[in-house]
């Protein structure tokens, strides 16, 4: 940046930066490393930060446990559906909240802000009983089903998503819409064909956050999926290996690695846009 | 615009829709389908593999005899069972068909109305007449039977014969000697826990209370009152909490140990002693201590006496909302029948609940002696009221033990709190 | 916001309603209605038999709250929750902001490395992160004890990090900060890079010191962002559940590492007291709303981003 920094000072700052980056990344390195260590080296009283005999044993153990692949797909399905739906819904709401004028708009904005502050974990109890009732009418969205998880995560990621996209939509000049209207484009067409692509960075940020939210969930999956083993998600799969006094650390690290990879890939792919997106949202 | 008029309308509707929390419908009635997936919950154990193998065999047999039926087993950790079962009770339509549960939970589970009354099924079951009456009693609430007794859980003292011989120790004849021995073991062999036991191992603590003449609660005119703050109970709990000290089983490692974990530690050669169940025998036998341990009844306070043990046992219950009631009962009967009781005995060392099987096996297996002796010396039970499950799942007693062991509170304060919490649940 | 006031914007409530309806229905059903239900349940004796429909409902009024407020453990847990969350919020803000400043003063390569590492921490699912940290700090197999005892702190051999009340909270807080500072860093970095070059040059020409430039030029420019980062951190760190639940095995020894969220869950789902659990949930919601509300109000400039 423009702040003038003298050269030796900058060099020191850069060294510090790299060291800090190393520290921050270290737990991840340790996770992946431990996942690849052979059995004898993991549960060792003198752990070493390297291995000369990488082994896939831990991964094999994880993947052969019945259902790990299934759990993975379950988590993925929930997260992807949540991302797609929250993109569409939050985009529509953001457009309405920025480009239409109507009474009650300000109040709605405040409500959306407040909604982000509601501790959703506290809602586990009523949501559990709500989903029980929903299941009576529409079994696919009831307890024990992935649909129930999609619904709650969608609801929880919407307020923040709307809030974020609002800034992006507002940043698109109104003149553009005028021009499009003059060219004879319907409002629907303008919204989807012109506005939607223009707010892409915001959409990326929204999808990343919605994905993480759904993918990371531990509490609702634990509470909602009661007896259908085939509908469990990844966190439960990891819990299987974690038993105090008798933990299979290799398997825990391997399953953690497998769970982290999709998010990491997602993050790195959209890295630039995410940074821009978050900033854009907060500036809007 | 319209939002303003719509919102209050929606709000009013919502208010009308539910002025009170929802209750699930009148105990959803089950069905009697003869195909599909039968969902079974069984408890996870220290070294589950042999149990799993025996159950798998039963499943193979069951699936071969019932075309179109698949049995899905989910392993539930004993300590995490409360929220799991809460879920099943709250939404009967998503409950499993068959579930293993402890006899301490019978009254509370029966109260939810979610379990089937199996009295008739057991009367009509050929092996049912063979069930030990005293064991069958533990499966009853209000005179109805809510589960088929699967095995009896009696705990005794496992100790390392090699360590005792090396240090010149004699098997303890009193609880005080047990504590001394444990301390000596830890002193001479600092890499061993004197005795592996923990704050969350309530069933190991109970004999200490009972041997000291205390009890958990007393019943007057149908009303339960906690007695854990009595002098006798206090002496027992304190004696137990003294095991979870740096000179025996350091609290940093042991304060949170459960029964399963304590046995795992002993089986792995990390402890001089452990209080373990008959159902743990094979897990220990397969561990690092194979051939280097013996089992004896937990001693009482005077030499030669036996501390009253907790008369535990697990049952197989059928959920009332099961869509495959007939299949569920048949599967439970298969697992709890003569053939698989013998197999479970071979796999885990479980004490059978069928008189004929128990007689036959006890005669041929001297290692069962400690458990049979304990049984005949007299056992005790937790208060048989629905409140007990709640007291149990709220960790009332483990919290008190942990507070005493870690010095967070003294015994008087910790047990006064525990008694208050228990009385609140008794109502 | 100029766009909104432009005449081209449709004054069309019906279209707005149409656009807002899908999200509105969903939020109404899954956020507003459950909040209402949370309050309703908290007014009843709602235990296992009641929930299962095997016993009649008893309306208690405020009894659950009275019991809760009279319970010493509740106040202890509340105090610990506030302390723990405050430590996490301050930690994330300080680390995040400091690193954002650092990142704005170095060249692209080290900066990219730092951002990649931070993104990695951010991306790690809470449950995976909890286990990795537990493993690093494991009593017997952990690298941290090995390193500490290796460099002379022999007392740290077989030290249990999850035993002492403060040690355990510290470990969990470290993990929480590790995965939540990246958001602060990214946000603040965006703010710092958004300060116009000319302003800074003008300040430099006027002979302003680095400290003075930071305080008078950069800070006012990034204040709205700082508000957002703070509010988000408060919201996230008060709601931590997974880390505490997993790393302290459900609340620590004798429940001494419980925080409100986990306490409510234990009361409701393990203790079968859904009414009491809901009351805790209500208290927590009010607490969070008032903290964030106060903070937002205290930041005058925040009006700009509403």
List key phrases describing it.
heterotrimer, B: 427 residues, alpha/beta, five-stranded mixed β-sheet, three-stranded antiparallel β-sheet, 14 strands, 46% helix, globular, C: mainly alpha, Carbohydrate ABC transporter permease (chain A), cell membrane (chain A), MetI-like (chain A), transport (chain A), BP-dep_ABC_trans_perm (chain A)
Map the helices and strands:
The complex is a heterotrimer of chains A (284), B (427) and C (306).
Chain A: H1 7-36, H2 39-42, H3 57-64, H4 68-99, H5 105-117, H6 124-137, H7 146-171, H8 174-182, H9 187-198, H10 200-216, H11 219-224, H12 234-239, H13 249-269, H14 271-283
Chain B: H1 2-17, E1 36-43, H2 49-65, E2 69-76, H3 81-90, E3 98-102, H4 106-111, H5 119-123, H6 133-137, E4 140-141, E5 144-145, E6 148-153, E7 155-160, H7 161-167, H8 175-188, H9 202-211, E8 217-220, E9 223-226, H10 231-241, H11 251-254, H12 259-267, E10 273-277, H13 281-285, E11 293-296, E12 309-310, E13 312-318, H14 325-336, H15 338-348, H16 355-364, H17 369-377, E14 379-380, H18 387-393, H19 396-406, H20 411-426
Parallel strand pairs in B: 1-2, 1-3, 12-14
Antiparallel strand pairs in B: 3-13, 4-5, 6-13, 7-10, 7-11, 8-9
Helix pairs in contact in B: 2-15, 9-10, 10-19, 18-20, 19-20
Chain C: H1 2-5, H2 13-41, E1 44-45, H3 48-51, E2 58-59, H4 63-70, H5 72-103, H6 108-123, H7 126-136, H8 143-150, H9 165-193, H10 197-205, H11 210-238, H12 242-247, H13 260-270, H14 274-298
Helix pairs in contact in C: 2-14, 5-9, 5-11, 6-9, 7-9, 9-11, 11-14, 13-14
Subcellular location (chain C): Cell membrane
InterPro entries (chain C): MetI-like (IPR000515), MetI-like_sf (IPR035906), UgpAE/MalFG_permease (IPR050809)
Domain ABC transmembrane type-1 (chain C): 78-295
């Amino acid at each position: 940046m423009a702040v003038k920094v003298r050269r030796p000072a900058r060099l020191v700052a850069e060294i510090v930066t790299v060291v800090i980056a190393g520290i921050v990344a270290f737990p991840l390195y340790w996770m992946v490393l431990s996942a690849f260590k052979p059995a004898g080296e993991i549960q060792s009283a003198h752990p070493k930060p390297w291995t000369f005999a990488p082994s896939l044993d831990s991964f094999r153990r994880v993947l052969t446990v019945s259902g790990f692949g299934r759990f993975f797909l379950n988590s993925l399905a929930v997260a992807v559906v949540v991302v797609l739906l929250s993109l569409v819904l939050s985009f529509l709401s953001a457009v309405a909240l920025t480009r239409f004028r109507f009474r009650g708009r300000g109040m709605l904005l405040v409500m959306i802000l407040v909604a982000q502050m509601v501790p959703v974990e506290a809602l586990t109890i009523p949501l559990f009983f709500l989903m029980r009732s929903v299941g009576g009418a529409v079994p696919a969205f009831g307890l024990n089903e992935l649909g129930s998880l999609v619904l709650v995560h969608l609801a929880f990621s919407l307020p923040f998503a709307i809030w974020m996209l609002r800034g992006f939509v507002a940043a698109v000049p109104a003149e553009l819409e005028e021009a499009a209207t003059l060219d004879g484009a319907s409002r629907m067409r303008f919204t989807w064909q012109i506005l939607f692509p223009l707010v892409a960075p915001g959409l990326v940020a929204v999808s990343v956050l919605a994905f993480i939210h759904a993918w990371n969930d531990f509490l609702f999956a634990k509470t909602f999926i009661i007896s259908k083993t085939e509908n469990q998600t990844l966190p439960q799969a990891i819990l299987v290996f974690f038993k105090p006094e008798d933990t299979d650390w290799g398997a825990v690290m391997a399953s953690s690695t497998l769970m982290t990879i999709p998010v990491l890939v997602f993050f790195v792919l959209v890295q630039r846009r995410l940074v821009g997106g978050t900033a854009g949202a907060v500036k809007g | 615009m319209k939002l303003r008029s719509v919102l209050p309308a929606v709000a009013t509707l919502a208010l009308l829709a539910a002025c009170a929390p929802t209750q699930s419908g009148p105990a959803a009635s089950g069905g009697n389908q003869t195909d599909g997936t039968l969902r079974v919950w069984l408890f996870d154990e220290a070294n589950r593999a042999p149990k799993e193998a025996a159950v798998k065999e039963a499943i193979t047999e069951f699936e071969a005899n019932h075309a179109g039926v698949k049995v899905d087993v989910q392993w539930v950790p004993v300590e995490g069972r409360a929220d799991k079962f809460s879920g099943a009770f709250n939404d009967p339509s998503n409950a499993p068909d068959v579930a293993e549960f402890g006899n301490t939970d019978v009254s509370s589970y029966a109260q939810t109305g979610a379990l089937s009354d199996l009295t008739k099924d057991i009367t009509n079951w050929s092996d049912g007449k063979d069930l030990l009456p005293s064991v069958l009693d533990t499966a009853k609430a209000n005179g109805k039977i809510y589960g088929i007794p699967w095995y009896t859980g009696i705990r005794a003292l496992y100790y390392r014969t090699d360590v005792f011989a090396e240090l010149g120790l004699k098997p303890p004849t009193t609880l005080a000697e047990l504590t001394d021995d444990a301390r000596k073991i830890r002193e001479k062999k600092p890499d061993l826990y004197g005795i592996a036991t923990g704050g969350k191992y309530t069933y190991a603590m109970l004999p200490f209370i009972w041997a000291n003449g205390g009890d958990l609660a007393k019943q007057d005119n149908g009303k339960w009152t906690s007695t854990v703050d009595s002098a006798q109970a206090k002496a027992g709990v304190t004696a137990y909490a003294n095991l979870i000290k740096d000179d025996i089983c350091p609290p940093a490692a042991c304060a949170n140990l459960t029964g399963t974990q304590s046995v795992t530690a002993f089986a792995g050669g990390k402890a001089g002693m452990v209080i373990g169940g008959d159902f743990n025998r094979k897990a220990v036998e397969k561990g690092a201590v194979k051939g280097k341990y013996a089992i004896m009844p937990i001693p009482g306070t005077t030499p030669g006496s036996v501390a009253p043990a907790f008369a535990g046992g697990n049952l197989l219950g059928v959920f009332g909302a099961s869509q495959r009631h007939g299949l569920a009962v048949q599967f439970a009967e298969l697992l709890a029948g003569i053939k698989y009781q013998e197999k479970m005995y071979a796999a885990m060392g479980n004490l059978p609940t069928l008189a004929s099987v128990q007689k036959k096996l006890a005669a041929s297996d001297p290692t069962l002696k400690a458990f049979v002796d304990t049984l005949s010396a007299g056992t005790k039970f937790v208060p048989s009221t629905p409140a007990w499950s709640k007291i149990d799942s709220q960790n009332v007693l483990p919290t008190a033990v942990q507070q005493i062991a870690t010095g967070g509170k003294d015994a008087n304060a910790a047990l006064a709190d525990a008694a208050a919490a228990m009385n609140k649940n008794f109502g | 916001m100029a766009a909104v006031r432009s005449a081209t914007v449709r004054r069309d409530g019906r279209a707005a309603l149409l656009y807002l309806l899908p999200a509105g229905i969903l939020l109404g059903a899954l956020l507003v209605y459950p909040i209402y239900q949370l309050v309703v349940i908290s007014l009843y004796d709602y235990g296992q038999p009641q929930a299962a429909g095997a016993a009649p409902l008893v309306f208690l009024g405020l009894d659950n709250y009275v019991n809760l407020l009279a319970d010493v453990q509740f106040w202890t847990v509340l105090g610990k929750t506030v302390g723990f969350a405050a430590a996490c919020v301050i930690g994330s803000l300080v680390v995040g902001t400091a690193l954002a400043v650092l990142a704005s003063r170095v060249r692209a390569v080290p900066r990219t490395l730092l951002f990649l590492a931070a993104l990695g921490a951010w991306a790690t699912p809470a449950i995976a992160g909890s286990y990795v940290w537990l493993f690093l700090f494991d009593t017997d197999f952990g690298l941290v004890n090995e390193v500490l005892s290796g460099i002379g702190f022999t007392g740290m051999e077989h030290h249990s990090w999850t035993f002492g009340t403060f040690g355990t909270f510290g470990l969990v807080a470290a993990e929480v900060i590790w995965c939540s500072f990246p958001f602060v860093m990214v946000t603040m970095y965006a703010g710092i890079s958004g300060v116009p070059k000319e302003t800074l040059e003008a300040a430099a020409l006027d002979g302003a010191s680095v400290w003075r430039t930071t305080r008078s030029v950069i800070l006012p420019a990034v204040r709205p962002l700082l508000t957002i980062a703070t509010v988000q951190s408060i919201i996230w760190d008060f709601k931590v559940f997974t880390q505490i639940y997993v790393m302290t095995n459900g609340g620590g020894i004798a429940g001494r590492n419980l925080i409100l969220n986990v306490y409510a869950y234990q009361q409701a789902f393990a203790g079968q007291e859904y009414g009491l659990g809901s009351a805790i949930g209500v208290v927590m919601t009010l607490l969070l709303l008032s903290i964030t509300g106060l903070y937002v109000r205290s930041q005058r400039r925040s009006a700009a981003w509403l």
